[in-house]
Amino acid sequence: MNDEFTDDEKAGFYKAIYSRRDVRSHFTQEPINEETLTKILHAAHHAPSVGFSQPWNFILIKDMKTKEKVKESFQKEHEKASKLVEDPKRSEYLSLKLEGIMESDVNVCVTYDPTKFGPFIIGTTSIPEAGIYSVCGAIQNLWLAARAENIGLGWVSIVSNDVLRKELNLPEHIVPVAYLCLGHVTNFEAKPDLERSGWLPRLDLKDVIYFEKWEQKEDESWNIIKKMIESNLK
């Protein structure tokens, strides 16, 4: 393997990042090819992890009864969440399509196991949450690989972890981090759904960058990159 990326390889990498979407609709009935799904899972498994602990597991789900139970949990949690929002925003929230549990070919529950490789993991003594951060890195790998393979992926966070523990027979120490829906789609939208609907705006990069200290927006040593950021250089 050549260490350097060609221009075409770089372009493909950035295309996957910028065109990745949290897919809730547009799923088709076409099943995911086994080889494709395996490639996507391999990419997830090659994420970085604190202390090389690889603390993730991936539960693959096709059983419709399990999907139905998770969908029921989504509906309950969705209704509960809507009560925190006042109209007209509440009506808008309830109209949003926020999951594709039943429509997607494969559901995947990504979990965190803090006991894998024993009680001491390099890098977790000061920041124990680094294990969960590692699982999130695996999820991002999975998401980008899915996009590169033209497979849609949606992360359903409006679901009860207690229901997931029950329906998936998770031991007490196992933490469900993400419930994902994967499947072929008719198309990928040009912008994220919540941006297209006007729910929230896309922030500019300049709005989330500080230099050297919290909320410090000016520093002479960073002037060049500051100008590049303000020019929206990609």
Automatic annotation (TrEMBL):
Its EC number is 1.13.11.79. InterPro entries: BluB (IPR012825), Nitroreductase (IPR029479), Nitroreductase-like (IPR000415), Nitroreductase/BluB (IPR050627). GO terms for molecular function: 5,6-dimethylbenzimidazole synthase activity; nucleotide binding. Residues 17-184 form the Nitroreductase domain. It is an enzyme of class 1 (oxidoreductase). Keywords: Flavoprotein, FMN, NAD, NADP, Nucleotide-binding, Oxidoreductase. It comes from the Archaea. The keyword Transcription regulation does not apply. PANTHER family: IODOTYROSINE DEIODINASE 1 (PTHR23026:SF90), NADPH NITROREDUCTASE (PTHR23026). This is 5,6-dimethylbenzimidazole synthase. It comes from Candidatus Nitrosopelagicus brevis. The lineage of its organism: Archaea, Nitrososphaerota.
